[in-house]
Amino acid sequence: MIAVGAQPFGYELSPGHTALVVIDMQRDFVEPGGFGASLGNDVSLLHTAIPPIAALLAAWRARGWPVLHTRECHRPDLSDCPPAKRERGDPTLRIGDPGPMGRLLIAGEAGADIIPALAPAPGEWVIDKPGKGMFWATGLHERLQAAGITHLLFTGVTTEVCVQTSMREANDRGYVCLIVEDATESYFPEFKRAALDMISAQGAIVGWRAPSSAVLSALDANAVSR
Ligand code: C5J
Question: Which of 73, 81, 113, 129 is catalytic?
Fold first, then answer.
């Protein structure tokens, strides 16, 4: 095990059995004209997470460890998008409406793609999810179990929505989870702070938290192993 300096106490990372999870780093959330912007958000607030995620991806790839990307998106016929989700609120564009990057949050459209800076490498898992959590309607738990993955490191956007929902689902399924503080972002800085606090409070009730520097220095202190 590799010891990572974390809160509320040290995290033990299992080499080769810890997947790096990159949640929804899609053009629809990060770039102007997408779903995030249609809800009135300043998408530039998410950009600070990109370099730390890229550094973690490089570290995982160098070790041949598992990487899992998710995309929040729906089938073109919207059969997996509950009306209660599509009709929520008063956005400028709704899920499935045509926008500058294609139809919003629809699989196969440009906006549903992961941003080029964090594009999945060949062999990395890409999970399309219709919900906020990565386990709902994806079959992911069975795949992770079959691959022997026991630990998950969470990154991506947004901290308090899809990242936190996925981490809570993972915690309930028995995965040992850590969220990387600077590799996740929110349109609402106060929600990010609160989500990180909620996750790690009460003795890591949902999981651990640590900056990417702590994860990367712990990896550097250990020989590269596959
Ligand atoms: C949202 C997400 N915020 N990926 N999705 O609707 O967090």
Answer: 129
Under 8 Å between Cβ of 78 and 96:
yes
Q: Which region among 84-93, 97-106, 204-213 has the lowest average model confidence (pLDDT)?
A: 84-93
162 catalytically annotated: yes
The contacts of residue 95 (CB under 8 Å, 6+ apart) are 35, 74, 78, 81, 85, 86, 104, 105, 106
Termini Cα distance of the chain: 13
Query: Given pLDDT bands bounded at 50, 70 and 90, which one contains residue 4?
Result: very high
Cα-based distances in Å from 52 to 7, 123, 215: 18, 21, 11
CA–CA separation, 207 and 209 (whole Å): 7
Is the pTM above the cut of 0.85?
yes
| Ligand 1 atom with the shortest distance to the CA of 158 | 7
Q: Are the C-beta atoms of residues 15 and 2 closer than 8 Å to each other?
A: yes
Contact (CB, 8 A) for 157 and 191: no
Query: 209 near 199, Cβ under 8 Å?
Result: yes
* SS3 assignment, position 221: coil
Ligand 1 pocket residue status of 185, Cβ below 6 Å: no
129 belongs to the catalytic site: yes
Q: What angle do CA 179, 171, 24 make, to 5 degrees?
A: 50
CA dist., res. 63 & res. 68, Å (int): 15
The encoded tokens of residue 19 equal: 């997947």
Cα(41) to centroid of ligand 1, in Å?
11
